[in-house]
Amino acid sequence: MKKIVLAYSGGLDTSCLIKWFEEKGYDVIAFIADVGQGEDFTSIKKRALATGASKVYCLNLQKEFVTDYVFPALKAGALYEEKYNLACALSRPLIAKHLVDIAHKEKAHAIAHGCTGKGNDQVRFEVTARLIDPKIEIIAPVRFWEFKTRDEEIEYAKSKKIPVSVTKKSPYSIDVNLYGRAIECGVLEDPWQEPPEDIYALTENPIKAPNKPTYVTIDFVKGIPQKIDGKAYAPVTLIQKLNQIGGKNSVGRVDMVENRLVGIKSREIYENPAGTILYAALHELECLVLDRETMRYKQAAAQKYAELTYNGLWCIPLKTQLDSYFNTVHKNTTGTVRLKLFKGNCTVAGRKSKYSRYKEEMATYGEKDIFDQKQSEGFVKLWGMPFA
Ligand code: ARG
Known about the structure:
By secondary structure, this protein is α/β, with parallel strands linked by helices. It is 40% helix and 21% strand. It is built from 12 helices and 14 strands. The strands form 3 sheets. The protein has a 5-stranded parallel beta sheet with strand order 3-2-1-4-5, sandwiched between helices. A 5-stranded antiparallel beta sheet has the order 10-9-8-13-14. The radius of gyration is 24 Å and the shape is elongated. The model has no long low-confidence stretch (mean pLDDT 97). Bound molecules: arginine.
């Protein structure tokens, strides 16, 4: 019997997929990845089995997600098209890796996913899986199966008694994990329309957010966040905690029209409170401890890192090389940043580090000044000389 491991979310598409493969004579093993989407995994597991999966794997990958994917991207300062913290994009290579792992364990010759042919996720899953195992077969039926609309899928699900709840039909397509939430479709498909307030789940409406600012301090060691307000947190709880604090203050909403790899422009709304806070904080620390040339050079590397991640190239050599580069960049980004969160804003209030390059005696206009201004005369002349 042909065996296939399916990345299973519990939604309509992947539930229909279990049945669809079963009808084509496959033994279907469902894989549920817990990347912090906060769902009821026990009932999703039950649903997979009730629909026809012969076995279910449900793995908690949250820690691995934060440590090996989120933190490296944070250290790289990777923001796709200057706005998107890549929450969804970062989870895909992780899921793909475990999908292949399970396939090997189960001696399955193929893996499957429920991505459409229009998105980025198909690329991220497949490129990663093939880089790990070039021989693995990948089947993505949503790109070619017989159902043209969601209603046809619902009909199929009903006729096959697939236990999915399609009663409260949301007009949106939503992807959530520990590091953020992405919302598209429905009214959002018109880029001129302001997103309705009810699409948000992680962030409070700014009008209802506290009328007084919330201060939060974050301690970093070599570019990795370790403490919030002086208290140490493990990676997963640190992100959860910052999502809470930021969300309450409406921090982390992003509305963007982005360029998908397949050539389509799409309008996406993101909520990423923790990511917004961490990027802002680490950037401020970098401004304090990094020299000018490093600071500027790393911008280009950050952009490249974001593109590679977005475009499904997380596992190629260049990304690993960039990780090594960013590890050296962060040799001294150890210190504390104090931020002020207020009705959607996240601004810096203070920063300190034992590796600070800031020299008060150089910057000051007061009595402590040791800067020899006479030297500037010659410096400025020479600086402009080539252009005279
Ligand atoms: N545009 C984002 C990406 O490609 C998120 C994709 C999933 N979005 C969604 N709303 N289902 O990484």
